[in-house]
């Protein structure tokens, strides 16, 4: 598999950006199916996988920055 050309990369990134904007604007994934298909056709499969994980991470990071992190309480230590 050869590396994507500059034009192919631009097309992939553009499709990714359209999909991400749609997902941000619509909480309903079904309204973004057209953009999802375009993204999957425009980008190599490994890139699709990477960008999906990246979006999940960025959304998680954004939520942690807004809401903060509350660690789970561990087991109680008995004081004998």
UniProtKB/TrEMBL annotation:
It is found in: Mitochondrion. Gene3D superfamilies: Cytochrome c oxidase, subunit VIb (1.10.10.140). PROSITE patterns: CHCH. It holds the Pfam family COX6B. Keywords: Disulfide bond, Mitochondrion. One of its GO terms (biological process) is mitochondrial ATP synthesis coupled electron transport. It comes from the Eukaryota. InterPro entries: COA6 (IPR042289), COX6B-like (IPR048280), CX6/COA6-like_sf (IPR036549). One of its GO terms (cellular component) is mitochondrion. This is Cytochrome c oxidase assembly factor 6 homolog. It comes from Esox lucius.
